[in-house]
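Q: what sequence does this backbone want?
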């Protein structure tokens, strides 16, 4: 059974940075396409950044050149470095396995078992 634990969120001011971490068990991060997703109450969850094991990456247009997805295979951990944060980045962030990754979109399994997420709040 796969378990994910997201951490690293918090309250920051616009322009500041955060690094999110996702510790995974039951799945080899180094052998799996993984991604970060976010959700604001009342809206659909959206893919933010995804990467496969060949290092092909997808980024949501609004986070390109600000966010970077990476992984540490030895620690079985996925990261999301978020720079130049904006108020629109405020959301609950989740990590997940990805089943479909293209230049245009990134999809998690459906149905999916999501972790508890980590809250990112950016004040303007």
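A:
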């Amino acid at each position: 059974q796969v378990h994910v634990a997201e951490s690293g969120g918090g309250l920051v001011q616009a322009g500041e940075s955060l690094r999110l971490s996702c510790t995974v068990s039951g799945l080899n991060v180094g052998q799996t396409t993984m991604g970060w997703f976010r959700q604001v109450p009342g809206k659909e969850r959206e893919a933010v950044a995804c990467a496969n094991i060949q290092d092909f990456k997808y980024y949501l247009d609004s986070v390109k050149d600000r966010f970077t997805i990476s992984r540490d295979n030895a620690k079985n951990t996925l990261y999301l470095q978020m720079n130049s944060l904006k108020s629109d980045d405020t959301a609950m962030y989740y990590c997940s396995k990805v089943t479909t990754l293209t230049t245009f979109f990134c999809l998690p399994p459906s149905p999916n078992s999501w972790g508890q997420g980590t809250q990112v709040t950016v004040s303007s």
